[in-house]
Amino acid sequence: MQREQALVLLKENLKNENLISHSLAVEAIMRGLAINLNEDEQKWGLAGLLHDIDYDSTYDDPKRHSLIGSKILEENGLPADIVYAVKVHNEAHGLERKSNMDKALYAADPASGFIIAAALIRPDKSLNKVVLKSLKKRFKEKAFAKGANRNQMSSCTELGMELEEFLQISLESLKEIASDLGLE
């Protein structure tokens, strides 16, 4: 599946604009990580873009989230490794993260919201002005972006990557799509 087709599929299943923006953000981070780890950028990007495809129908039932999504992806002919990565990004299922794609998606999901929150608290609401130093400081503040699971982001070590490097790659990846997110 090409990205354009994936975006159409996403928008057929997900109507919430904030969730679509989140999906674009996770896609960007996944692409940045894939480049850094010499992985398949297109495949990793699709996993990031489509990871929450079922959220409109499962937001009130977290145990079904990602199970429905992985089924949608499977029915649309996406590769098994993308389907599995989407399924295991929800830790509620207790499934093992096996591949680097699985591990990256698990860490990238909360990182997108965390970094965007850092941009939104700025007076200029600009991702381009967010720096790694402020992210590292905010990471230690439990009250900041409470929904962004720190343990999940810290799991980047499963990729052989320190948190600082992971956050830097994630930040730079999001800066590349800042205009798409309305956070220039």
UniProtKB/TrEMBL annotation:
Residues 15-123 form the HD/PDEase domain. Coiled coil: none annotated. CDD domains: HDc (cd00077). SUPFAM superfamilies: HD-domain/PDEase-like. Signal peptide: none annotated. NCBIfam families: HDIG (TIGR00277). This is HDIG domain protein.
